[in-house]
């Protein structure tokens, strides 16, 4: 891991403050806190404004100041288990947080005897914050916690002009066809991206408009992975862009995890042969049906490889934890398998026993797999995940896309392709090359190193 060093040339001339505001979801909080750590190491004081829902633990970050605001999320939190429309929650937060955020930010700016605030950095999904920042005459930068390609796809997809294409089913002739506006994606992919295309269209329009109005965009990616898309982004978004990722390579994410990790699995991994374990995790939000859950279980049982399966409580709709497993599954797996509620994922992926990562392709997980050189089996669930998965499988060719969803025969074939076939060896070679490019980008003079230096200089000049 390339840890941040306090290079005097990167430190700001004064102890100016930066105020950061993440959206309250694990996949968004982690990179924001990682960015905060990076900037703190380069001379800035850090204040985190945060929603009370999924609040970060201040004791894990004693060098930051935390300011909670009322978010009203408790009124709709019970819908998280059943409502698959992510934009419903994001649009709600953009309305419910506006006044509490403005009051909190204005109070911070008015505090006597404090160092001046250099800028505000908010998650790009908090699009309302641009108007608040303009009103208070404070530069706002947007952190986009996805890859570049995701934003280009969002900009191109016809959420408003062709909403019907987001409702296609397997029976429709175009279901497997490419989407003309963004040919990397198939219609069956965009069905997952937006369950409510009109709502998604409204959200995306607001987010992208305010990204263009911002003082700059920070991306958790690195130039060598998305060089062509970076050229397009600089044309589509006429504000400075900074690609200084992967953030987690600067600092480990364990301290910002919202779920308790089961570390006993590391000693179990120590007993497994090199590159023999199938690691399965579908992230902190995604949900699957009971039948899909059982197909995953049968696929893992039938393949014969050791496996580590993360089943977050609430993963299966209508189930608390493991009640939906096939009869005698746990007894049958014995020492060959482990099921846990959450894992120290970066350490699991870095472990020599881990042979492949069956993932939902959240952007953080995808980046972590790249950084450890672990081939992927791609099972995206919603929003940006199908886009990440298509890039992984079809552009970078570092994973196998599980095209037919959770079906045991397809699962077994995908695992064999990655773990046993020549195709898997070629995937491993490609992702190992990307792993090396990550290291080079973070080293002195590398693209991410230089982008971080440019960001620190830019914030210091605001």
UniProtKB/TrEMBL annotation:
Alphabetically sorted, this entry's keywords are: Transferase
Record's InterPro entries? UDP_glucos_trans
Is Transferase found in the keyword set? yes
Q: Which domain of life is it from?
A: Eukaryota
**Pfam family of the protein (one):** UDPGT
Point out the signal peptide segment.
none
Annotated GO MF terms: quercetin 3-O-glucosyltransferase activity; quercetin 7-O-glucosyltransferase activity
Q: Of which family is this protein a member? A: Belongs to the UDP-glycosyltransferase family.
Report the protein name in the record: Glycosyltransferase
Q: Which organism is it from?
A: Mikania micrantha (bitter vine)
């Amino acid at each position: 891991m390339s840890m941040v060093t306090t290079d005097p040339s990167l430190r700001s001339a004064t102890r100016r403050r930066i105020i950061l505001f993440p959206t309250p979801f694990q996949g968004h909080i982690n990179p924001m806190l990682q960015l905060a750590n990076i900037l703190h190491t380069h001379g800035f004081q850090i204040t985190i404004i945060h929603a009370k829902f999924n609040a970060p633990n201040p004791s894990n970050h004693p060098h930051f100041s935390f300011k909670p605001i009322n978010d009203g999320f408790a009124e709709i939190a019970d819908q998280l288990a059943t409502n698959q429309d992510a934009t419903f929650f994001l649009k709600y937060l953009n309305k419910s947080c506006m006044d509490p955020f403005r009051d909190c930010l204005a109070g911070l700016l008015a505090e006597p005897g404090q160092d001046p605030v250099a800028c505000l950095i908010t998650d790009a999904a908090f699009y309302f914050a641009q108007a608040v920042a303009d009103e208070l005459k404070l530069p706002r930068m947007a952190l986009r916690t996805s890859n570049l390609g995701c934003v280009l796809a969002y900009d191109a997809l016809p959420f408003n002009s062709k909403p019907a294409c987001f409702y296609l089913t397997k029976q429709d002739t175009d279901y497997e066809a490419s989407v003309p506006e963004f040919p990397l994606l198939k219609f069956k992919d965009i069905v997952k991206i937006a369950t409510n295309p009109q709502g998604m269209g409204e959200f995306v329009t607001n987010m992208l408009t305010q990204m263009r109005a911002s003082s700059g965009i920070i991306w958790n990616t690195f130039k060598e992975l998305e060089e062509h898309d970076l050229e397009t982004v600089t044309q589509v978004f006429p504000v400075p862009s900074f690609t200084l990722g992967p953030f987690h390579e600067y600092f480990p994410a364990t301290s910002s995890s919202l779920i308790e990790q089961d570390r006993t699995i590391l000693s179990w991994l120590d007993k497994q042969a090199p590159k023999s374990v199938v690691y399965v995790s579908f992230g902190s939000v995604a949900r699957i049906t009971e039948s899909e859950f059982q197909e995953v279980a049968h696929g893992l049982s039938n393949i014969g490889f050791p496996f580590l399966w993360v089943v977050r409580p609430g993963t299966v709709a209508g189930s608390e934890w493991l009640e939906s497993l096939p009869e005698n599954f746990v007894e049958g797996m014995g020492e060959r398998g482990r099921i846990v509620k959450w894992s120290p994922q970066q350490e699991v992926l870095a472990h020599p026993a881990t042979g492949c990562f069956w993932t939902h392709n959240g952007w953080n997980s995808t980046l972590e797999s790249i950084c450890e050189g672990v081939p992927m089996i791609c099972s995206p669930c919603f929003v940006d995940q199908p886009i990440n998965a298509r890039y992984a499988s079809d552009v970078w060719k570092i994973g196998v896309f599980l095209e037919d969803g959770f079906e045991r025969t397809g699962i077994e074939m995908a695992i064999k392709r990655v773990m046993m076939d020549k195709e898997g060896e070629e995937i491993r070679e490609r992702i190992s090359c990307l792993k090396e490019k990550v290291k080079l980008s973070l080293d002195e003079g590398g693209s991410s190193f230089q982008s971080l230096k440019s960001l620190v200089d830019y914030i210091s000049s605001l």
